[in-house]
Amino acid sequence: MPPVQYELIKECPRTKARAGILHTPHGSFETPIFMPVGTQATVKTMTPEEVRELGAGIILSNTYHLYLRPGSELVRQAGGLHRFMNWPHGILTDSGGYQVFSLGPLRKITEEGVQFKSHIDGSTHFFTPEKSMQIQMDLGADIAMAFDECPPYPAEFEYAKRSLEMTTRWAKRCQAAHTREDQALFGITQGGMHADLRRESARQLVDLDFPGYGIGGLSVGEPKPLMYEMLDVTVPELPKNKARYLMGVGSPDCLLEGVARGVDMFDCVLPTRVARNGLAFTTHGKVVIRNAEYARDFERLDPECDCYTCRNYSRAYLRHLYKAEEILVYRLLTIHNLHVLLNLMRNIRQAILEDRFVEYKKAFLDKYGQENHS
Amino acid sequence: MPPVQYELIKECPRTKARAGILHTPHGSFETPIFMPVGTQATVKTMTPEEVRELGAGIILSNTYHLYLRPGSELVRQAGGLHRFMNWPHGILTDSGGYQVFSLGPLRKITEEGVQFKSHIDGSTHFFTPEKSMQIQMDLGADIAMAFDECPPYPAEFEYAKRSLEMTTRWAKRCQAAHTREDQALFGITQGGMHADLRRESARQLVDLDFPGYGIGGLSVGEPKPLMYEMLDVTVPELPKNKARYLMGVGSPDCLLEGVARGVDMFDCVLPTRVARNGLAFTTHGKVVIRNAEYARDFERLDPECDCYTCRNYSRAYLRHLYKAEEILVYRLLTIHNLHVLLNLMRNIRQAILEDRFVEYKKAFLDKYGQENHS
């Protein structure tokens, strides 16, 4: 039996939304779930205890970054990533495929793998499916991801087709190379923005019988409705008894739309990254804390939020810290943004369990405001 | 009765060290005490709860910085500094005198006050004793400090003499201008590195009957033995029933030497500032965490320390975070360094109470290593 199992608890009768439990070697976590990103073995600005206290069960960490620094072999020596970073709960590592894709002109793709240059020192490296597996086995996350090729947006049909086929071949090589029994290996479906290719990729990956599936190559610059369309054609191909993970998605509206289409897992740097740029999600939309209008605004960031930040600090204080470039503000906004998303996921799950997901989704989006840009 | 009272509990029979309690409107705090610095209304990288949990009772915040940003009037509107920054315990504000002194060529001193240019935007400002009082009353700390003139090191006898006399005249103006009854105003003694002037300044200030005394103009670049000499001549002039505060001093060895000479209160940016530069105090001296020797060192930062950082993270992890410029490392090293100093003060107090301060001091310094540079 694979070390990670998805248990379906409840389906929404009117959408594809579902509530479940993801069982991993480091705990069982309620889904749908949002996974905060800890790129370099730390969720930026936060201690692991704080991340856990906000309700996060699984975090994502990055194969590409940890391979370059401090090196996956060092992490293995340290007793694995859980111990190295003091996070005894769930961890998922991406495969490095997306980061290498993001390097653009710094990388070169062949059937064997991808050659790329380090963003840190320009040194040349070569990732193959086998190499990605070795690194991820060294890191020792609960869930490893297959090494995929993520086509850019927009990508021609022919390119996206070749890419999905190579991704399938690479997925097989990943399965052959992956030998760690306390770690699950998830496949990643691709197919660009072409419905036929999305279906084809999903079918090929499902044939390989992974214990869970990432949906890759979305949130790469396409309009949101197009992303939703791709989800609409992909998710029905995936087995009901396995987790579905929409990679790199994390704005409140996309989380709701993803859940409605049957997604169980999400990750995104958005809540932590924008926090460091002084931007907060609130129930009434976004707040840019440096704005002069908040200079003497002694109210809380979000009147309806009960996170640590909102309970204890005013917008005026947060603005002061931001203008003064004080580290505390990056912490406080990160806490708030993660709370908003993790709390949203809890509320979504509760709504699914109580057969009122559709109403909850509508009420949330009416207040928050739709965002149709990607 | 002044709102801040010093209660003497126990004197060391062999040195001038003493244990006491400082009673303030926001709590009573055991002395000798180290006050972490929260320059811009935040102890850098830390939440107030974390600072308190480490054992800090009083923090210092800066008049000069808060006057420039966000403005003391705004802090008053927010309900005062305690509320603005979510710190319900003791606060002491400096007078701005030292910061203005530090600006060097950006300032011009007259009998009336000091004209200076902002380090933020170059705008021109004028601080007088009355202005410093107004700002500090707006901020609403438990303890305000008199506006003084801090001579540079080295300073000629004549300069230091004129400076101490002006500081006394300014101290009287501060007393006249200070009207807030829930806030104590401490005087600051000066006198450069001249024993006679140190005594003279202390006597003049004592005549003005402040409820507590800062010892200013030390730790400005002079050798440590010279600073200790100045303490030796200053402290005996100060009344036993009032707190003595050595300003801007915070290395472990200086804290021990200061306490031995009768000092009750200290503040310093050192533990928090050096933390952000990757430097940790340990019981065996300093550790520069970026050093390559720690890359695969999976031991704790200080084997004898039980702070949060030492309990949960290895040197290898801290080094990784530092190399990756992750904010968490600044937090973890700040926690550790503050713990070391606050724990040192607790141990010092306990040793005084148990008549073994001299032995404790020797044992600590033998292990830590003397630092004779300033």
From TrEMBL, chains A, B:
One GO biological process term is: tRNA queuosine(34) biosynthetic process
Report the protein name in the record: Queuine tRNA-ribosyltransferase
Q: Which residues form the tRNA-guanine(15) transglycosylase-like domain?
A: 15-369
User: Per the record, GO CC terms?
Assistant: cytosol
Ordered alphabetically, the record's keywords are: Glycosyltransferase, Metal-binding, Queuosine biosynthesis, Transferase, tRNA processing, Zinc
Q: Where does substrate bind?
A: 94-98, 148, 190, 217
| EC supergroup of this enzyme | transferase
Question: What is the primary gene name for this protein?
Answer: tgt
> Which parts of the sequence bind Zn(2+)?
305, 307, 310, 336
Write down the species: Heliobacterium mobile
Which purpose does this protein serve, as stated in its record? Catalyzes the base-exchange of a guanine (G) residue with the queuine precursor 7-aminomethyl-7-deazaguanine (PreQ1) at position 34 (anticodon wobble position) in tRNAs with GU(N) anticodons (tRNA-Asp, -Asn, -His and -Tyr). Catalysis occurs through a double-displacement mechanism. The nucleophile active site attacks the C1' of nucleotide 34 to detach the guanine base from the RNA, forming a covalent enzyme-RNA intermediate. The proton acceptor active site deprotonates the incoming PreQ1, allowing a nucleophilic attack on the C1' of the ribose to form the product.
Q: How is the cofactor bound?
A: Binds 1 zinc ion per subunit.
Q: What lineage is this protein's organism placed in?
A: Bacteria, Bacillati, Bacillota, Clostridia, Eubacteriales
